Amino acid sequence: MEIVIGILIPFLGTTIGALMVFFMKNVLNPKVEKLLLGFASGVMIAASIWSLLIPSIEMAESQGVISWVPAVVGFIVGILSLLAIDTVVPHLEGNVVKGIKVNLKKTTMLVLAVTLHNVPEGMAVGVVFAGVLAGDANVTLAGAMALAIGIAIQNFPEGAIISMPLKSSEGMSKGKAFFYGVMSGIVEPIAAFITLLLTSFVTPILPYLLSFAAGAMIYVVVDELIPESQKGELSNLGTIGVTLGFLIMMVLDVVLG
User: Fold this and answer.
1) What is the pLDDT of residue 102?
2) Residue 70 predicted with pLDDT over 70
3) Are the CB atoms for 34 and 238 separated by under 8 Å?
4) Which residues, listed in sequence order, are joined to residue 97 by a DSSP beta bridge?
5) Distance between CA 248 and CA 246 in Å, rounded?
6) CA dihedral sign of residues 97, 162, 8, 115
7) Which of 75, 95, 83 is nearest to 170 (CA)?
8) What are the backbone angles phi and psi of residue 97, rounded to the nearest 5°?
């Protein structure tokens, strides 16, 4: 039950974020948006290091493998995978993909793009909980929960940034915009559960999968979240957000882990 709850926590973050469409005005306050984008970036960077890369290195070492090899290989594959997704689903000016405002009025493409970007995050949660089920000493339940909470935190602004533009720019009803915002995150628990079902097959390559998830998350941060948080005025708020997000996630992971 704890693992099921842990897997659903990130999805809850997206849902609560999408729910904000019912309480906010048509346009998200630029200051709040910058701060939230930066905060999400900091959370994902810290989670990639303490919840994914470090356990990957320690796990590889315990398996008798050269400790840094799975971390490097998985990280590179994670980066290249997201690069391929960005090539297949291009950023067109006016749409919103992980906080990036780009102008595509086709809601289907919007949800597809965000959904594809959320797959690695679901894998990241599934992978760490698979490690817990496998009894690997390098991955603790508390550490897995910390990662889930961290991703949920960064999913909150994501849900809001998706649902609100659908309401303001495309004229959707609040209910429909909320629905699309929620659906953009449903792939995360699905990907996590699939990973868990394949635990027996996943365990030997767990170090690679952990670093793969880290690479995918860092790509999103570097390519999309941080550039958007630093664009135009109020860039200092984005920097403050990164700092707060990084520190909070680091403390959560170190203390709980």
Assistant:
1) 45
2) yes
3) yes
4) 100
5) 6
6) negative
7) 95
8) -130, 110
Q: Which pLDDT score, from 0 to 100, does residue 101 have?
A: 47
Q: Where are the beta strands (DSSP E) in the chain?
A: 96-97, 100-101
Contact 147, 124 (CB under 8 A): yes
d(CA 143, CA 148): 9
Identify whether the C-beta of residue 104 lies closer than 8 Å to the C-beta of residue 92: yes
Inter-helix orientation angle 107-133/2-19, to 10°:
160
Spatial distance between the Cα atoms of 187 and 120, rounded to a whole number of angstroms: 10
C-beta separation of 74 from 214 below 8 A: yes
Select the more confidently predicted residue: 102 or 8.
8
- Beta-carbon neighbour count of residue 199 at 10 Å? 17
Q: Which two tokens stand for residue 48?
A: 């990639």
CA–CA dist 154, 42 (Å, integer): 9
Residues contacting 82, CB < 8 A, separation 6+ = 117, 120, 215, 216, 219, 220, 223
159-161-163 Cα angle (round to 5): 65
CA 94/CA 88 separation, integer angstroms: 18
Mean pLDDT of 143-167: 75
Q: Look at residue 95 in the predicted model and tell me its pLDDT.
A: 47
Domain coordinates of the chain in residue numbers?
2-256
Q: Taking the CA of residue 187 as centre, how many other CA atoms within 13 Å lie in the half-sphere pointing to its CB?
A: 15
Provide the token pair at 33. 């948006």
What dihedral angle (degrees, nearest 10) is formed by the CA atoms of 244, 121, 219, 232? Answer: -50
Model confidence at 132: pLDDT above 70:
yes
Q: What span, in angstroms and rounded, lies between the C-alpha atoms of 52 and 143?
A: 10
The C-alpha atoms of residue 79 and residue 219 are separated, in whole angstroms, by 6
Question: Across-strand partners of 243?
Answer: none
